[in-house]
Amino acid sequence: MITTHPTGAALGVLMKARTINPLSRLFQRELATLLDKLELQRDKLSAVIIGFDADQGATSHELEHLMALTPAQAADCMHMLTAYNALLLRLENLGVPVIAALAGEVSGHALGLALACPHRIGLHDARLSLPQVQLGLAPVAGEIARTVRLAGVQAAMPLLLDGVVLNAMQAQQAGLLHAIAAGEAELAQLTANVQDTRASRQPWQARHYRLPGGALDSAPLRALLQAAPARLRERAGGPHPAAEAILCAMVEGLQVDFAHALHIESRYFCQTAINPALRKGVSPL
User: Fold this and answer.
1) pLDDT band for position 255 (50/70/90)?
2) pLDDT of 169-190, one tens digit each?
């Protein structure tokens, strides 16, 4: 699932996108083993460069991971997500530049892990998406909290509430990519530039961070959010539990610190995942 290879003073990591699953104990063990290795070697590393191997059909795997979830497993679901979020926080705060190198389709949990990398560089063919809403599910493991803090509420809405696919240029404009490379040679140069800076921090970790697109209490966002529930129902022709849960997680998560935002996101995910009635009529992509 996870392989590593030296790249000069940096370490390259390749992950099979389909195996990235917050609710998989096997994947969590592999990721924990990788993090143990990185933490032991961080004084010798100039950077960690993470890539994703996306196989055919990876965009529909979210539902496969959830077919066995029942209401009785809600507590275990929350426990698993707490453990997975802790792993992503270790990656996010490794202390050396962690760079996600994105190419082709990067979807769902793979994008969620990429967003935990403080630096994200895409090849020109990169296409980013969080399609869970189309499966009747809320994204999880920081996919909501990080997207909103990187892009702002309005720019995050199409990705989170509609499951749209962003091309590399759109993703950069939304704040999800730092740079776009025309090819492998330029990608290598851009990652080398990041290694030279030795900076490794997410924007919201800065002291004077401001939410892109304006704060929640700004007049334009207040108007947008007041109208959003009715618009969701109008587009769906009735209730849309997953989109409504995501909207709540977006707004509530911005009113607390990042750790509590992750907990709120997990609760809304479990709410949609353990109740098959909320997914009635929704088919995998």
Assistant:
1) very high
2) 999 999 999 999 999 999 999 9
The beta strands (E) that lie in 72-186 are given as 98-102, 105-107, 119-123, 127-129, 166-167, 179-181
Phi, psi at residue 122, to the nearest 5°?
-115, 145
What token pair was written down for 89?
């926080």
Cβ count within 10 A of residue 135: 22
Q: In what order do the strands lie in the sheet containing 127-129?
A: 105-107, 127-129, 166-167
Alpha-carbon distance of 96 to 194, in angstroms, equals 10
Residue 66: the pLDDT is: 59
Give every CB contact of residue 19 below 8 A, 6+ residues apart in sequence.
1, 27
Residue position matching structure tokens 């999880």: 140
Question: What is the torsional sign of CA 107, 27, 149, 133?
Answer: positive
Burial of residue 139 (CB within 10 Å: 0-12, 13-18, 19+) is: buried
Mean pLDDT for the chain overall: 90
pTM of this structure? 0.92
For residues 97 and 92, what is the distance between their CA atoms, to the nearest angstrom?
Answer: 9
What 3-state class would DSSP assign to 128? strand
CB of 272 within 8 A of CB of 242? Answer: yes
